[in-house]
Structure formats: C-alpha cells, structure tokens
Specification:
Elements lengths: L1 E6 L3 E7 L4 E8 L6 H6 L6 E6 L3 H10 L8 E2 L5 E2 L2 E3 L9 H14 L3 E6 L2 E7 L4 E9 L1 H11 L17 H22 L6 E5 L3 H4 L7 E3 L3 H12 L3
Parallel strand pairs: 1-4, 4-5, 7-10, 8-11, 11-12
Antiparallel strand pairs: 1-2, 2-3, 6-7, 8-9, 9-10
Helix pairs in contact: 3-7, 4-5
Length: 239
C-alpha cells in the first residue's frame, strides 16, 4: 500500500494506491492540512509514503506530524539525475521542483515517448521530455488565474470576474479571460512547435480543462499526473 502526497502552494492532493490502482484520494487547501489527520487515520497503514512538497518547511513540519504509518518514514522526493527511466537535463538536478520531476516521471511511465508536459495550476510549467526519456528543459509562467488576479490587483478598473473566451471580446471580463487564455496557449503551442515529430502534449492541473479546448495540438488530459509519477518513484525506491 502506497500513500502519495502532492503538496502544492495552495492545495494538497493525496492518493492511496495498492500497486494495481487507486483506492482513495482527496484534496485539501494547504491551510487546512490538520484535517487530514482524521482522514488518514481511517485508511490502511501504508507500506510507503512518498511526498512532493513545494509549500516550504512549514508545510513539511505539519505533514510530518500527521502522516500515518508507525515506523514508515516518508520519502521526500527531490529531482535526481536519473530515475524511473527519466534523465534530468538541469545543470543542477535538485533545482527542479519535486512536483515537476514527478510529473515528468508520470508522463514517461504512461506514454513512453516525446511529451510536452504541462501542469496548469497556480503557475503553469511547460517541460520538454524527449523520446529517449531526457528532460531537456522547460519554462514557468504565471497560471491562468494568477494572470487574471495580477491584472485585477495592479491595474485600476480591471475586475477579477469570470469572462468568456472570444476571438473578438466586446467587454472587459471577456477581454481578460481571452487574453490570459491565449497567453497560456501561445506559450504551450510555441514550445510544442519545437518538439520532435510524434510528440504529444500531456496536460494536467486545475486549469487544464479550461485551456485544453483552445489548443490546436495533440493533447492528453491526465488527472493527478504528479500522483501517478509519485507511485512510480515509490515502486522504484528501496523497501
């Protein structure tokens, strides 16, 4: 039994996997981590616990106090030079975020080919994974809602309201929604244009369903891509 945890800047996602499939999963806001203690008491004791944490040391300390399993020390994922068939092209491999690393591992384990791995959350990460399993590099840009929020907070008169996409917006809300969506898709499609033939875009994250319909490239939507990668990392780690 494997418990995997993806602790992002705003939300934590977790899943319980029996090496055949998912048994349970859930999500909580990072400020509400304490409520997981009661939830995790109800699950079978895991043999392994694997965590990707990008929410800092405070979140790590809180998780250490509530993770289940007596005598089961959590594995805190850090990007490596080589793992699970993926080679890390960063000059300093550990500088790559553990969530991005796990997403790359997840994409490779699922598709075994060239992928543009996109995680569309608070930030949007766009990472190039070659057909030989090498992560060649990637970029980070503000996520869809963060783009909209920055306009609302830093520009007088622009509201933080949900608009509708349009190729020719005729009101402010639609103009913001359309501009931010096209900024996201433009970055993704520009990166994809440099990919090798036969590549696909693997798209995950909370904003993925909003972005996917506006992409004109081959897209595979994947729920919980980071958790998928964490399971593969757990299976390769020593007992």
């Amino acid at each position: 039994m494997i418990l995997v945890v993806d602790c992002g800047n705003s939300r934590l996602k977790w899943g319980l996997h029996d090496r055949n499939g998912w048994l349970k999963s859930g999500t909580v806001p990072v400020p509400g981590l304490a409520r997981l203690k009661r939830t995790w008491k109800k699950i079978p004791p895991p043999d392994k616990i694997v965590v990707a944490n990008v929410a800092g040391q405070s979140a790590r300390r809180k998780l250490n106090g509530i993770l289940p399993g007596r005598g089961t020390a959590p594995i805190w994922v850090a990007a490596k030079r080589h793992e699970c068939g993926v080679t890390n092209g960063y000059g300093k491999p550990s500088q790559l975020g553990p969530d991005r690393w796990a997403a790359l591992v997840g994409a490779w384990s699922m598709f075994h080919g060239a992928c543009l791995v996109v995680a569309a959350g608070t930030a949007t990460t766009v990472d190039v994974l070659g057909s030989n399993g090498t992560f060649a590099g990637g970029m980070i840009l503000p996520g869809l809602d963060l783009m909209k929020r920055s306009l609302a907070q830093n520009t007088a008169g622009l509201p933080m309201t949900r608009g509708r996409f349009s190729r020719a917006p005729r009101n402010t809300a639609d103009a913001i929604e359309s501009g931010c969506l096209l900024a996201q898709t433009g970055a993704i499609e520009t990166a994809f244009a440099a990919m090798e033939p036969g590549a696909i875009c693997v798209l995950a994250g909370g904003a993925a369903p909003r972005i996917a319909p506006h992409l004109s490239i081959p897209v595979r939507l994947v729920d919980n891509l980071v958790l998928e990668g964490l399971v593969r990392i757990a299976n390769e780690s020593p007992e």
